[in-house]
């Protein structure tokens, strides 16, 4: 029985990892293409949750969970066009400072608009409760999240690997100079990548709003885990981030199963060990422009 | 015509420069004819939500006191800041006393931060009102002469909910699984809960200590009920939440998500956490120290003033920080002093205060606990709520009117406090 319980924690960890992935993948993409560590990424996650809570009262769950990330993605256009774009070639410390500042401004803006007290939303009745698959217990709602994450991943993978858009983006990650020499402007691609990245973060926020505390500092809370995932996975690697996110979820579940007090520490220990053995992260590629 | 001699001008100038250089903030603040009061409460982190209510409450109290002429004819100058964590809380408390010249300190929700502030108060011989911290240990082995405790302690919360649960037949012979906040407050609450289970023929079949920054409770929930019902012999009858702040909100939401059949109850809840969980997610029986629907003049007046100023009803931490500053002002006006010794003497006489409840409250002299009524509450069905704030149905106040207030508080033997003179 003990083994089945452990397995249940592993599977639950995979589901949780999928949710971390929504936030971490965008963070990794924006860094890979633009060379910017977007410390404001969590703010878009929080905005996704708040816009969802605002919308759900009028439109119902289904529409709100779609419209909220789209709205935040549109905001991403402004973010890229007026802020990030100035920093692609600048000293990285400047983009760190500006996105850190923006994260604080966004948190305070949320506090001013929605107040310091949390806002709340509910899971639709049809997704409440748990179901049994074999011996395993699953929350219905988390299975829904897992399905959505899987669909998003397939979509992003197809976009990056099967379209001309993706070819330019991948080339831009490795050799922006060659892309420029071919007469292709990377800027519109960067705008699209930022939209995609912050949109995914907002999707995570929207889906988690009904099952977590929606408060102004929620963006800062999620950023730590997202960074751990990106660092473990290795920058610039699509699969690295996926593996890392799932690993982080699973390790946390296993740690809580055996030694609950080590639950939150376990993911940092994992990061430490990975960095010790592979400083580049699990599947991190050598990216020439960052060498 | 008075002529200022060049020499005396020079002397005055030198004295001023010297004073400024050495820094005598007390002189400067005395000239402003204000009484400075330091308020610290968590505005960020897992208790930040309820802490921001506390700040609104204390600001309203200061404003009302100032409008009605202040304390001893002087205006209150309230310094209210984010206490952040235990170490910062202590540093800020020290700074407020030493540099800002605060006469008295109040505030705090985290028992860990309150403990460090209590030590600062004792070291500086200044009175500190710990308004929202609930650990029994603060009133027991950590107690000191300069610290007063306004919120109900863990034992009272356990007694309030436990009594209500007993009446519903949910205690005797039942198996409990608890989820506990992993810091001084949670440990202390678990201890009180264990005492209650022990004396009421209930068994504790499992407990999980949960870090304060945890937002995803799914692995812990799986541990509460792993695999199918009936597979595990020790499946609980009742799941009990000993968590704090945002932890409670997250647990309540995710408990509703998983839809477990075991009733969820809790020995700690602040209405801010209940509101944050939202209608339709919260269920069960919980304790509270105060709720904005209490029907008495003082409480109603406070609620009306709060809604007028902030556009929303007050939470229990807004109330407790509000009444604390009010009763402190009353004490200073009566003793005509901000001297720590005078104030302590006044409160230790067990002077009675109207705190917006049916029965008056007083600080118990031997452990400085504000002895007052508490309430269990249950949750209103969603379709009966008038608005998003109208969530709770208060049970009858405990203890019942003919029993002494102290009957639900820890006894001298249960929670011994030795105050050094």
Quick structural overview:
The complex is a heterodimer of chains A (291) and B (421). With 291 residues, chain A is an all-alpha fold.
Write the layout of secondary structure elements.
The complex is a heterodimer of chains A (291) and B (421).
Chain A: H1 2-34, H2 41-59, H3 61-82, H4 92-114, E1 130-133, E2 136-139, H5 140-161, H6 164-174, H7 176-181, H8 187-208, H9 218-233, H10 238-258, H11 263-277
Antiparallel strand pairs in A: 1-2
Helix pairs in contact in A: 1-5, 1-8, 1-9, 1-10, 2-3, 2-4, 2-8, 2-9, 3-8, 5-6, 9-10, 9-11, 10-11
Chain B: H1 6-22, H2 25-31, E1 34-41, H3 48-67, E2 75-82, H4 86-98, E3 104-107, H5 111-124, E4 128-130, H6 136-139, E5 147-149, H7 154-167, E6 175-181, H8 184-199, E7 203-210, H9 218-224, E8 238-242, H10 246-258, E9 264-266, H11 271-277, E10 286-288, H12 297-310, H13 316-335, H14 340-348, E11 352-353, E12 361-363, E13 370-371, E14 375-379, E15 392-394
Parallel strand pairs in B: 1-2, 1-3, 3-4, 4-5, 6-7, 6-8, 8-9
Antiparallel strand pairs in B: 10-14, 11-12, 12-13, 14-15
Helix pairs in contact in B: 3-13, 4-5, 7-8, 10-11
